[in-house]
Amino acid sequence: MNIKRLTMHVVEMPLKAPFYTHLETVTKREAIIIEVEDRDGTVGWGEASAFSTPWYTEETVATEWHIIKDVLFPLLKEHDISHPADASSLFWAVRGNQMAKAGVESALWDLYAKKLDQPLFGVLGGTRSSISAGAVASGKTTDDMLERIQAHVEAGYGRIKVKISQGSDIEMLTAIRKAYPHISLMADANSAYSLQNIDHLKTLDTYGLMMIEQPLEADDMWNHAKLQRQLKTPVCLDESIRSFHDAKCAVEMKACRVINVKFSRVGGISEAKRIHDYCIQQNIDLWAGGMIEFGISRAHNVALASLPGFTMPGDIVSTDYYWEEDFIEPSIFVQNGRIHLSQEPGIGFGVSRKRIEKQRKAVHSA
Question: Could you identify which of 204, 205, 228, 275 might form a hypothetical disulfide with 247, taking C-beta atoms 3.0 to 4.6 angstroms apart as the criterion?
C-alpha cells in the first residue's frame, strides 16, 4: 500500500449531554484519530475508540497510545502490505489490544477504498443504500429516560435502547412501556446481573424486549448459555465477543441469539466481516453497536452496517446527537429513521484538520 507516514492525534470533546451507565458517567470523550498517508499523498482515516478509563474494556486511550506508537506503527513500517486484511494478520501476533488494532486497520480500509475510487461500503460487500438507525436513551432518572426516548421517537429512530441495572429496571421498563407500548425496545445491562438473578431476569420477559444485552459478566459465556435457556427474550452478547472465535463459541454454546458487532471491540473491520459472514450461515441476528464515537468511526460503522447480515437497527446516531461539531464534513444525519450512505470514495466524508488541531491534546508521526 506504499505507506509513507503514520500519524495519530489524541483529541477530546465534551458531550452535549452526559451518557449514563451503572459503571460510568461519560461527560467528555477522548479518542485517537489515525491518519495513514501513502506516497501518492492519499490519506486514510481511522479512529481508536477506547475510553479514558477501563470501564468498558481493559483498554484505555493511554494503552492505545503505547501499543499504536511502540508496536503497531513499527510493524506496519517494517512490512509491506497490499490489503487491510494483511494488517489484521500482521497484528495477530500482538495479544489483545483490539481497539488499538481496529483504529489502525480502519484507516487502512479507508485508504484502500480511496485508492480503488470506491465507497468503503461497496468494497466490503454492502448491499444497502441506507441503513436503519437506533439510538440509546440514557438518563439518571426515569423521567430523564422518558424525555430522551420522546426526542428519539420524534427524530424517527427505529429502535430505542435503554440502560438497565438492579434496583431500577422494573420501575423504568414499566414506565417506558406505559408511555410507549409499541416501540421497538431493547435493554442493555453492561454485566449488571449474575446468574443468581435469573428469576428476576425472567420477569423482564413480560416487557416485550427485542433483546437483553450483556446481562452477565463479559467472560462468562457458560452462564449466559444457562440464562438463555431460561429466557424467552433473546440474549445479545456485546463485551463477550472480542473475536471471530468468541462469536463461534457463543453460537455453538447457544449462549445468545443476537450478537452486537463493534468492529473496534473485535480488532477491526476484517474480523467484524468474518463474524458477519459466519452469523449469516448460522441465522444469528446482528446489529452494529456504537462507542460514543466521533464521526470517523461512525462512518466506518455505517459502511459495515450496510452488509446484508445486519438485521437489526444499530446504535448509529446523527453526528449532532453527541457533538456540537464533529470532525467529519458533511455530518451524518438520521432522516426518517435511516442514514443514507455516501457514494464518495472511502468512508465518504471529508475530515477537518482544523477541527482536529483545535481539539488535539497530543500527536505522534512515524
Answer: 275
What single-letter amino acid sits at 127? T
Could you state, in order of their start, the residue ranges of all structural domains in the chain? 3-117+351-365, 122-348
Residues 44, 94 contacting (CB under 8 angstroms)? no
Which residues, in sequence order, are bridge partners of residue 315?
134
361 catalytic residue (yes or no) = no
For residues 244 and 266, is the Cβ–Cβ distance under 8 A?
Answer: yes
The tens digit of pLDDT for each residue in 214-232 reads 999 999 999 999 999 999 9
262 is catalytic: yes
Annotated catalytic residue within 101, 161, 163, 273: 163
Average pLDDT, the chain: 95
The Cα 86–Cα 282 span in angstroms is 26
| Segment among 84-88, 333-337, 358-362 with least mean pLDDT | 333-337
Q: What is the dihedral of CA 137, 142, 148, 154, to 10 degrees?
A: 110
Please give the CATH topology (third level) of the domain spanning 122-348. TIM Barrel (3.20.20)
Class for the domain spanning 3-117+351-365: alpha beta
Angle between helices 269-282 and 84-91 (to 10 degrees): 90
Longest dimension (CA), the chain: 61
Please return the burial class of 232, using the count of CB atoms within 10 Å of its CB with bins 0-12, 13-18 and 19+: exposed
pTM: 0.94
- Whether residue 87 contacts residue 108, with contact meaning beta carbons closer than 8 Å, is answered with yes
> How far is Cα of residue 144 from the mean position of the Cα atoms in its chain?
24
DSSP 206: G
The 10s digit of each residue's pLDDT in 201-212 is 999 999 999 999
Closest CA to 275 of 231, 302, 240: 240
| Rounded-to-integer distance, Cα 279 and Cα 285, Å | 7
Bigger pLDDT: 95 vs 156: 95
Query: Which one of 114, 161, 262, 273 is the catalytic residue?
Result: 262
Cα separation, 165 vs 158, in Å, equals 23
